[in-house]
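Q: Got a minute? One more chain.
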Amino acid sequence: MKKELFDLQEIAKRCGRPIDEVERIIARAKASAKPMAKAVTVTENGVSERYTVKRMGVGILDTDHGKFWEYSFQLSDRWADYLAIWHGEVDDFLMPKIGKHLLMRTDSGCETGQVMGDRTCECREQLHIAMSELTGNGGGLIVHIPRQDGRGMGTPFKLATLYLQDQLGLNTVESAMMMSDGGEIDVRTYSGVIAILKFFGIGTSVDIDLATNNPRKVTVFKENGYLVNGMTPIVAPVTRRLERHLLAKQELLGHVNLI
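A: Always. Here it is, folded:
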């Protein structure tokens, strides 16, 4: 006879739940680790493309800002890996329950700032401020795109710009322009964000409040029929090391409400 590895009665007693509910939670956890895919069509810059959105896993984060559901995604676009964190209720399939209003943020990855703690950008602070805004608002969504470091130019490009900033006193825009020889310095796309909204079944009747300082991020939502009701500024504390960076983004890239 096969020996049971877990005593479900003891687990049910420990967590204060009926045993049938414990069994349902275990079944959902196992199901959540199996990929779930959906194909959706998204328009960006006037071009419509079909994307495959694959949810790879779901779990709960217990953070300094409260509890969030984290979803791991793989998409058939150039960025490939996405994370979504949701503060709010979920249904029996662990999908977000969305009301008539949604506060959300599109967050580009920043290995140097968010992971390693570099103080010349505000990316880490913006992410944590956004998480706090979501819990204070009672719910909301952040879509994080790890491979969009350096405004999509990549980590090696970003590291080179930081070297130029440190050695030559350049700002973020000057150093990026020097590295690109006057070419593009922001190649990010946001179709994947819309694809995830569609995967979640978030329709165009939902009023979206976008937590951003970058008006450019609004365009793709409007192209796909979403109503962006407003922009909630994400304002990081200004420090001596950060001021040059913020001024350059505000004066040269059109970002708003940074200082």
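A: Residues 34-252 form a domain with the Rossmann fold fold (CATH 3.40.50.10990).
Q: Perfect, thanks.
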